[in-house]
């Protein structure tokens, strides 16, 4: 692709049409390249940083990975293994209102392996997800209330345990077993 329009056309040509999440709800077995996008609430743990709050993290979730699903009575149940999460970049931007332009994004900024259990809600493209994932700490953590970031904490990873409500977006079906 030479520009963003070419990228958009390539994605539209390869991606499944809207409403494809219904395939998971209506078939006994499906494996897909999947994306979810929505809002999460949870707890992030960063080694060396103590936070006793039960819920200390919320924001945008946008993981992409592989979903293995089964459909029963118009519900779907999926084991979702995330590989990347574009929501990490969005969460960074929500908490940073002083940066004039988006910093250069590297693979290490979106690589967020995780595992989730997803329940697809009948007659909607929505899913409820519970799970955990590892990700980059794109925030600067102020340990001493000085307003200055702690250098040793800004490059650490986090573990997030979260619940989210998301739009279920199958991008590509690898395998579907019909009834």
Short description:
This protein is an alpha+beta fold and 179 residues long.
What layout of secondary structure does this protein have?
Blueprint: H1 4-14, H2 21-26, E1 29-45, E2 57-61, E3 63-72, E4 75-85, H3 87-95, H4 107-110, E5 111-120, E6 126-136, E7 157-177
Antiparallel strand pairs: 1-2, 1-3, 1-7, 3-4, 4-5, 5-6, 6-7
Walk me through the structure:
- By secondary structure, the chain is an alpha+beta fold.
- It contains 4 helices and 7 strands; from the N terminus they run ααββββααβββ.
- The chain has helices spanning 4-14, 21-26, 87-95, 107-110, and strands at 29-45, 57-61, 63-72, 75-85, 111-120, 126-136, 157-177.
- The chain has a 6-stranded antiparallel barrel with strand order 1-3-4-5-6-7.
- β5 (111-120) and β6 (126-136) form a beta hairpin.
- The longest helix has 11 residues, at 4-14.
- The N and C termini lie far apart (39 Å).
- 26% of the residues are buried.
- The model is unreliable at 92-97 and 145-153 (pLDDT under 50).
- Order of the strands making up the biggest sheet: 1-3-4-5-6-7
Describe the main β-sheet briefly: 6 strands, antiparallel, barrel
Number of strands: 7
- Quote the beta fraction: over 45%
Succession of helices and strands? HHEEEEHHEEE
What is the share of helical residues?
A: 10-25%
Count of DSSP H/I helices = 4
The dominant shape is globular
Radius of gyration (CA) equals 18 Å
